[in-house]
Write a structure and sequence with these properties.
141 residues, mainly alpha, 75% helix
Length: 141
């Protein structure tokens, strides 16, 4: 009887720690807020590399997180390069009518990314359940 109680407590503790590491894996993608390029990919990757043997269940969540962050980074990088190219070729006032909306769109994408990451963290923290990110390209399967 005591052995059963011990295994039940261990299972509850193990699932609680798994939920906590899922939470930290998603929260670590907010490392992009310290303005280090592509830190939003490195954060979940470091969590997964350190905990992959202890919690193999983390793999699918972190792969989905990294795929979403890679998709966002590709979109933002293409837009940034587009702004630089447009700035080189369009130097008059009409260039501002193109460049300013692109900056605004980049900011909106950035804030949507932050909002989705925070909402995923909150849902994992409250219920432990996970739902996939929208519009992410599956680079890493």
């Amino acid at each position: 009887m005591a052995e059963q109680i011990g295994t039940i407590n261990h299972d509850i503790n193990q699932s609680g720690n798994l939920k906590l590491w899922k939470f930290f894996a998603h929260l670590s993608s907010l490392a992009m807020l310290i303005l280090i390029p592509y830190a939003n990919i490195w954060g979940p990757l470091i969590v997964w590399k350190n905990k992959q043997k202890e919690y193999p269940e983390l793999e699918s969540d972190i792969k989905d997180e990294i795929n979403f962050q890679i998709t966002i980074d590709i979109i933002l990088t293409i837009m940034f390069i587009g702004i630089i190219v447009l700035q080189m070729f369009i130097s008059d006032i009409w260039g501002l009518y193109v460049i300013i909306p692109l900056f605004i769109l980049m900011a909106i994408i950035f804030f949507v990314d932050v909002f989705l990451v925070v909402s995923k963290c909150m849902s994992i923290y409250q219920s432990g359940e996970y739902s996939p990110y929208p519009f992410s390209i599956p680079f890493w399967k």
